[in-house]
Design brief:
356 residues; alpha/beta; Rossmann fold; 9-stranded mixed beta sheet; 6-stranded parallel beta sheet; 11 helices; 15 strands
């Protein structure tokens, strides 16, 4: 049997399942926290504390997911607890850095929701603080454990399709659900808050290459009734490679999510009506293979990030979602947002802060 075909059949894409589980305290019980807690419950991860400035939100999550968890409205109470080893921080980006710093200084490992920070220098400082405190700081890039993305990452890393030469991803869906929420106030909602998963995948797939420049733009869609632009696109230049991203965030009917990865000796394509339902195909000169992927981005992606952090802590290795590595993804994202603002290409690394 062809060696690469055997590799393709055995890609370890499922979320990590560590033999032991460390207790978790979750800070921020807003909408996204339900996916965190659903994934943790499914994996058997113990959640011992829930915190939100609105105590009723914490109480609702407690009743739905972890009835034995303690609840509070002050995150400092979570950091005082002896039964919390990992703090999962799901608040909005602007509120997170001081909470992350306090958790590290209290001797807790941290999983930060994405996007990690709005300032790369602040991200560097938090990574340095984690090193000084001898704690692990990781970022919840949960898209890495969407089954099709996880399989593609691992297949590329094991050389199934050779060296990556092109990555092309397009998403056509309806993001107007944000109307009336805090997300409607995020100017670059598509390129920043949403597309960070896709920029992160580009960074993962070109992990061995320098990403040099990006050209991006956004615009309103005809008929959209929310404030942020729902259309966005980016062209990404890389040494010996290229990538393109297209986001049609106002597609009420006939939605589609597509990924194509070109390699020097094969390709990976994945397509479906959305990111929760995908059919993936690996093709080489000698064979074609479609794995029967198990799971779904929501909530398995959240189970994956916490599982990766827990597994890394138990084995003593750095997690693949470590915060310092994630700054590379943010570097690309910030350059794309700046390009959309300026109307010209931007060198990756030149933009240290998310443009206002």
């Amino acid at each position: 049997m062809d060696e690469t075909f055997q590799l393709a059949r055995e890609i370890p894409y499922l979320p990590p399942s560590p033999a032991e589980h460390l207790p978790i305290g979750l800070i921020g019980c807003g909408g996204i926290s339900a996916n965190h807690l659903r994934g943790y419950r499914r994996a058997g991860f113990p959640v011992t504390a829930l915190c939100d400035i609105d105590l009723e939100c914490a109480r609702a999550r407690q009743a739905e997911f972890f009835p034995a968890a303690a609840i509070s409205s002050d995150y400092r109470e979570v950091l005082k607890r002896d039964d919390v080893a990992i703090v999962d921080i799901t608040t909005h980006p602007r509120e997170r850095p001081p909470i992350i710093a306090a958790a590290l200084e209290a001797g807790r490992h941290v999983l930060s929701q994405k996007p990690f920070v709005e300032d790369l220098d602040e991200g560097d400082r938090l990574c340095d603080l984690a090193d000084r405190c001898e704690r692990v700081l990781a970022v919840n890039q949960n898209g890495r454990w969407a089954p099709h993305f996880s399989y593609a990452r691992q297949a590329v890393a094991t050389g199934v399709i050779g060296a990556v030469t092109g990555v092309h991803m397009s998403v056509h869906w309806d993001h107007s659900w944000i109307k009336g929420t805090a997300f409607e106030q995020v100017k670059h909602l598509i390129l920043y808050d949403y597309a960070i998963h896709w920029f992160d995948m580009v960074a993962c797939l070109f992990a061995d290459r320098r990403i040099t420049r990006v050209s991006a733009s956004t615009s309103r869609a005809v008929g959209q009734d929310v404030e942020p632009h729902l259309l966005g696109q980016a062209l990404i230049e890389c040494s010996d490679g290229q990538a393109s991203l297209a986001f049609d965030g106002f597609t009420p009917q006939g939605t589609e999510d597509r990924t194509f990865i070109a390699g020097s000796s094969g390709s990976i394509s994945s397509i479906g009506p959305g990111n929760k339902e995908q059919t993936l195909t690996v093709s080489t000169a000698d064979w074609t293979y479609q794995p029967a992927l198990q799971g779904c981005w929501f909530p398995d992606g959240f189970r994956g990030t916490m599982g990766e952090l827990q597994a890394s802590l138990l084995t003593g290795r750095p997690p693949s979602i470590n915060a310092r590595d994630n700054l590379r993804s943010l570097e690309l994202c910030f350059a794309a947002v700046a390009s959309a603002e300026l109307g010209r290409p931007v060198n990756v690394g030149d933009v240290r802060r998310l443009p206002a």
